[in-house]
Amino acid sequence: MKKALKIVGAIAVLLIGVAVAALIDLVHIGNPGPSRFMAFQGFIELPSTGRLNVLDYLTLRDHVLFVTSESSGNVFKVTLDSTQTTAINISTLSGGGAVHGVVLMPSQNIAFVTRGDENTVEVFDPTSLQSIQRISVAEDADGIVYDPSSKLVYVANGDAHLATLIDSEKHAVVGTIPLEAKPEYPALDASTGLLYQNLTDTNMVAAIDLAHKSMLGKWSLAPCEGPTGMAIDSEQRRLFAVCSRNAKLVIFDLERHQVTTSLTIGGGPDSVAFDAALHRVYAAGKSGKFDIVQQDSPDTYRELDQISTHYGAHTLVVDPTSHQVFVGYASLLNHPRIAIFSPTTP
After folding, report:
1. What are the residues facing 79 on neighbouring strands?
2. Is the dihedral of CA 182, 203, 318, 90 positive or negative?
3. What angle do CA 223, 229, 233 make, to 5 degrees?
4. Are 281 and 261 within 8 A, CB to CB?
5. Burial of 335 by CB count in 10 Å (0-12 exposed, 13-18 middle, 19+ buried)?
6. In terms of CATH, what superfamily is 38-343?
7. Residue % of the chain over a pLDDT of 90
8. Based on C-alpha coordinates, what's the Rg of the chain?
9. pLDDT per position as a tens digit, 178-209
10. How many Å apart are CA 8 and CA 16, to the nearest integer?
11. CA 167, 102, 163, 131: dihedral to nearest 10 degrees?
12. For residues 280 and 256, is the Cβ–Cβ distance under 8 A?
């Protein structure tokens, strides 16, 4: 009996030690690990809105970065300097509940943001951050994309298993598209105008014709389990999806409708971005790993590096002009922040 109690005590002490170490790791935010392929240029600290700060989507245009906070419901607007390494100003659009994707209208001073807990899409002025209107949509509004050809805003409603279509000029819902599965991240194919939608609970991707408000087809992303983030190489006709449940990056041929290549990447991947000029794929995951993958040909890929960032640093965006990559960090008892990286040539 005494021996059993000693064993139980030793296990308890070990578990407490692991928990304390994990807590320290969550609270302390150090610089990312070294890399021969990416230069770390520093952090931009965002306002702290509570003990736990979880960032979700990053949207970048014209030296302005919009960052959504899933934990607080706030949208941060970060105005960057000309080098995009320092924040000139940070302002906040306040809100309640989880907030997710932001889309900016190309020729209007209008933006849309999904508020998943409230089942709404908020229309706001991206210059002044003044709220204009709330549009009621189906439950669990998450990913959002604007299609310039149809002038529709497409909203992925996860728990509702459908997509909501909003007229970008009238700010009104004009239809829904049943998806028969839980949608995650959507992306537009610039070559065909089709929208592709990851279906996370069935491990598939669907092609959507927005002009006709219909699904054209859906295909397996196996060996992907739990597809989340997605990016498209329209020129090479490839789609990149990261897989949250089995830590994979899969490459899907948009013409043959099949996965051609897969790579193992960091745990809990959530976001992926493609730099067409450098032929690089970037992925970030909840385990705190930032993967850099080189595209040598449409079906040949190699991992250049895996950089240690911070637990919960799962969201990113790439600037196609400067080639900088912005990675959003979660935080506990600390300020959330954006890490800035620039590609280097070893």
Report:
1. 64, 89
2. positive
3. 85
4. no
5. middle
6. YVTN repeat-like/Quinoprotein amine dehydrogenase (2.130.10.10)
7. 85
8. 20
9. 999 999 999 999 999 999 999 999 999 999 99
10. 12
11. -50
12. no
Calculated CA dihedral for residues 119, 120, 126, 128, nearest 10 degrees: -110
What is the model's pTM? Answer: 0.92
- Tell the residue number behind the tokens 């004009």, with chain if given: 174
Residue 66 CB neighbour total at 10 angstroms: 23
Q: Give a three-class secondary structure readout of the chain.
A: CHHHHHHHHHHHHHHHHHHHHHHHHHHCCCCCCCCCCEEEEEEEECCCCCCEECEEEEEEECCEEEEEECCCCCEEEEEECCCCCCEEEEEEECCCCCEEEEEECCCCCCEEEEECCCCEEEEECCCCCCEEEEEECCCCEEEEEEECCCCEEEEEECCCCEEEEEECCCCEEEEEEECCCCEEEEEECCCCCCEEEEECCCCEEEEEECCCCEEEEEEECCCCCCEEEEEEECCCCEEEEEECCCCEEEEEECCCCEEEEEEECCCCEEEEEEECCCCEEEEEECCCEEEEEEEEECCEEEEEEEEECCCCCCEEEECCCCCCEEEEECEECCCCEEEEEEECCC
Q: Which amino acid is at 145?
A: V
Query: Does the pLDDT at position 17 exceed 70?
Result: no
Q: Which two tokens stand for residue 242?
A: 């990261």
pLDDT score for 293: 98
Compute the distance between CA of residue 280 and CA of residue 301 in angstroms, rounded to an integer: 9
What local confidence, expressed as pLDDT, does residue 29 receive? Answer: 83
| Separation of alpha carbons 90 and 266, rounded Å | 31
Listed residue (84, 28, 89, 97) closest to 56, CA to CA: 97
Instruction: Indicate the burial class of 183 (C-beta count within 10 angstroms; 0-12, 13-18, 19 or more).
Output: buried
